[in-house]
């Protein structure tokens, strides 16, 4: 199994997270297959726990894409969550969406918005609308200065244009075309109340740009990869972990995403979540062998143990956090 290496300037936090003392979690029936199609992206964001960017070359191969198609065709999952990098850069992204749509599976696209203006992506927005794809788009603030600081110069303007284009196609305004935005804090703090921040986003984006959307997903930054490295470099790792631990809410254990989700990396290996994937902590069988998507066909997923570490406190701290926003 190939593992992903950190860049020379990045500091790894894995040894500080495992072994951990996070409470044990019991898996439920699998509902969501989250598939990382590769780490190539047209952006490099400071909060990105995937360390994605334009220079990354890792992309899911055809035989693994075929396994994804075979699995969703044979098993009753309800959501295919496509992520990356920018998942839309994968050459078989369109095919995967079309097949899942025909099977009646909801497709979620983790979209960075600016991808809609990349070469050869001029009709991507229309394609997503045609296939009722749920869009989850990162917009770390409703002000230009904060977004450009976190994601790069000019990103905010393109993001606004993309949201306006999606609105024109019915996204955010029709029940069948869901448009959700994602907020990540810019520093080592817990995010604010999701409901209140969502109201602020909706008011500002509508008043300033006539933009509407469905929900705001507020996600806690995980102390891993690019963000984890920055915590170590600035001396904030220990204090941030203390914040997460002291804010742990036992009730959030009931709805953490790993209970009904399995994450698939670009090589087809399986993980409890996207965060464990970035920490190279795969799902293993009773013999401690790493599980691959091809193994999942004959596996009872609810019998698989969930691998936890101290980073898991990021999912249960405060209002809780998941790929679909706050848990409580």
What's the rounded overall pLDDT mean? Answer: 91
The tally of strands reads: 8
What general form does the structure show? globular
Tell me about the largest β-sheet. 8 strands, mixed
End-to-end C-alpha gap: 37 Å
Helix/strand-derived class? Answer: alpha/beta
CATH-level-4 superfamily name: Aldolase class I
Secondary-structure element series: EHEHEHEHHEHEHHEEHHH
Strand content: 5-15%
Helical residue percent? 25-40%
Which stretches of 5+ consecutive residues score pLDDT under 50? 1-8
CATH level-3 fold name: TIM Barrel
Number of helices: 11
Rg from alpha-carbon coordinates: 19 Å
Regarding CATH, which class?
A: Alpha Beta
Sheet with most strands: strand arrangement: 6-5-4-3-2-1-7-8
Q: Give the second-level CATH assignment, the architecture.
A: Alpha-Beta Barrel
User: Could you say how many structural domains there are in total?
Assistant: 1
Brief descriptors of the model:
single chain; 328 residues; alpha/beta; TIM Barrel; eight-stranded mixed beta sheet; 11 helices; 8 strands; 31% helix; globular
Write the layout of secondary structure elements.
Layout: E1 32-36, H1 62-74, E2 79-83, H2 93-102, E3 106-111, H3 124-130, E4 134-138, H4 144-151, H5 155-168, E5 179-183, H6 194-209, E6 215-218, H7 225-234, H8 237-246, E7 261-264, E8 270-271, H9 274-278, H10 293-296, H11 313-316
Parallel strand pairs: 1-2, 1-7, 2-3, 3-4, 4-5, 5-6
Antiparallel strand pairs: 7-8
